[in-house]
Design brief:
Elements lengths: L1 H19 L11 H27 L5 H16 L8 H13 L38 H13 L3 H25 L8 H4 L2 H9 L4 H16 L3 H15 L6 H4 L5 H17 L12 H7 L9 H7 L8 H24 L4 H19 L11 H4 L5 H6 L19 H15 L9
Helix pairs in contact: 1-2, 1-3, 3-8, 4-5, 5-10, 6-9, 9-10, 10-12, 15-16
């Protein structure tokens, strides 16, 4: 208890110190030097966090209320501060405001004259890609934005909504820990992780809703409410698409078809809400892939590394993405047809594998894309997955478009940890 309390106090002090680096009124931290200092503080927070994780795994005790109190304390100062590590939150608020005005958010780009009456000085000037990109966010995310937009269109309102999804995540994880007969204090593995703290409370990323829906789907699957699990999975997929990768893990011989049908029905129903926009309902999805270098392979870590050796063939990116798809398909068949994880720990472990392989494969350079990996780590803290759920705070550092050298600081240790883990006996935690 004393050890955890001390580590929690250090994390809170580091969070407040990081927040103090922001220059009031600045859209970013304030200066390149301040961002370097912030990333250093985040790295120190990561070290303290890993110490706290080791503590709850080795010496569990009756400290769940302390864990939850510190988790809330870490988030509250960031919730009521302006976002300064990302501008995505302003697009969320804008999409909600557009819907509150009765307009389909997929119909116009923010700069369109049809939306001129909705512009203001607090939100509109900060919207990224305002002059050429229709919103990329899928229908479940848009429903969240719409609800907040009708209740009160503000940055703080959306941050509080993301805090609510984090509360849902923690509730589901506590229930999963109880089902697995594991100490409740292990919820710290998610709740104290500095990456979700800064990504969600600090910058309000919609990935918090992904975490909530994924944790709910895992819980409902463990409790054998397969139809409801499918609804939660469908909502997760149409918040950020990537959670589709855990569908094979949730499959069961008894209720798999109920899960699949309810997931598909949920997604079709959500798309139906916005179908008036026609094909534009898919938003900036195709353009985003090109912009982020997924189409060409320049934005993918492994391919960016190979490109250091010489020009890549024109079909290299398609071959790579095809290979990644085959790898994920093979893992999907393994978990759905052969291994069939059924208890809480096995399901979370398999989900963590699928999620980590996908994220490693597409290697995004935005830190918040990694935050959802902390969810399965609460029950199955695989070292490589836990590293990928934490170390991307390093990516907040501006590296001027570098997609290989600096990201290697995140990806290379993950590879080494995965090989180390595979050479040791299973179920040894993270020791």
């Amino acid at each position: 208890m004393i050890r955890l309390g001390l580590l929690g106090a250090i994390l809170l002090a580091l969070t407040l110190a990081g927040l103090s680096l922001h220059t009031p009124g600045a859209g970013t931290v304030g200066s390149p030097e301040a961002k370097v200092e912030l990333v250093i503080l985040l790295c120190v927070s990561g070290v303290v966090y890993f110490a706290a994780v080791a503590s709850v795994l080795r010496w569990p005790g009756r400290a769940v209320w302390l864990v939850l109190l510190v988790a809330v304390a870490l988030r509250l100062p960031l919730i009521f501060a302006p976002p300064f590590l990302s501008s995505d939150l302003y697009r969320y608020v804008w999409d909600g405001r557009v819907q509150a005005a009765g307009i389909n958010p997929y119909r116009y780009v923010p700069n369109d004259p049809a939306l001129a009456a909705l512009r203001d000085e607090a939100i509109f000037p900060h919207i990224n890609r305002a002059d050429y990109a229709h919103t990329i966010y899928p229908p479940a995310a848009q429903v969240v934005f719409a609800i907040v937009g009708r209740l009160g269109s503000s940055v703080t309102g959306l941050k509080l909504a993301m805090f609510g999804f984090e509360a849902l995540t923690v509730f589901c994880l506590l229930a999963l820990l109880k089902a697995a007969r594991l100490p409740a204090e292990r919820v710290l593995i998610y709740a104290w992780n500095p990456l979700p703290v800064w990504a969600f409370a600090g910058n309000g990323h919609v990935d918090a809703a992904v975490c909530g829906f994924v944790a709910l789907a895992l819980l409902l699957r463990v409790r054998r409410f397969d139809g409801w699990a499918g609804i939660a999975l469908g909502a997760a997929v149409l918040t950020k698409f990537l959670p589709a990768v855990i569908a094979p893990v949730l499959w069961s011989r008894r209720g798999g078809w109920r899960l699949a049908l309810s997931a598909v029905a949920t997604m079709l129903g959500l798309y139906a809400l916005y179908i008036g926009a026609g094909w534009r309902v898919f938003g900036f999805l195709s353009g985003y892939g090109a912009e982020e270098g997924l189409d060409s392979g320049s934005g993918i870590w492994l391919m960016a590394g190979l490109a250091q050796l010489g020009p890549l063939p024109l079909l290299a990116s398609k071959v790579y993405l095809g290979g990644l798809g085959l790898l994920l398909a093979g893992l999907a068949c393994w978990f759905a047809c052969v291994r069939r994880p059924d208890d809480a720990v096995a399901i979370c472990s398999a989900a963590g594998v699928m999620m980590a392989v996908l994220i490693f494969g597409i290697s995004p350079h935005y830190p918040w894309y990694f935050a959802w990996l902390a969810v399965p780590c609460v029950l199955a803290p695989t070292p490589a997955v836990l590293w990928l759920a934490t170390a991307p705070v390093l990516m907040y550092l501006d590296t001027h478009g570098d997609r290989f050298a600096w990201p290697s600081v995140v990806y290379v240790p993950a590879i080494l940890l995965a090989f180390w883990r595979s050479s040791t006996a299973p179920n040894k935690g993270i020791t």
